[in-house]
Amino acid sequence: MALSTENKEKVQQLVSEGKQIAKIQRANFPDTDYWEIYFAAMDVGIRSIVGVKKMIAVRLNALIKIDDEARRKEIVLELQRLTWDMYERLKSNQTKLEKWAKWYQAGEKNAG
Q: Which one of 21, 50, 53, 98 has the lowest number of neighbouring Cβ atoms within 10 Å?
């Protein structure tokens, strides 16, 4: 089942928040093929936080074994980009959580 533009945007938002593609598929789109969800997320180049973490781990493990100085520098630069990407997304998520907490606390004060 092909995803609508609205659903693709929802997938991309969920992935940018750190949700795993498999969990998005099970919870939100159980009738949609996993790969449809995957490609919707990758359309705009968004990687899941879990995916970025795995990429960083793989690159760090590779770094140990590489003797070529140019290749080591290349991997270090890639690690810097991946780390910065993860940091920016987590910072954005933290801002969203803080806004939600303020909204929630304001609602509790008004209700009580």
A: 98
CB-based contacts of 108, cutoff 8 Å, min separation 6: none
Angle at 87 between CA 97 and CA 40, to 5 degrees: 80
CB atoms within 10 A of CB 62: 12
Does residue 48 carry a pLDDT above 80?
Answer: no
Assess contact for 52 and 81: CB atoms under 8 A: no
Strands (E), the chain: none
Residue type (1 letter), 36: E
Q: How far apart are the C-alpha atoms of 83 and 6, rounded to whole Å?
A: 29
- Residue 44 pLDDT: 64
**4: amino acid identity, one letter:** S
> How large a percentage of the chain has pLDDT more than 90?
25
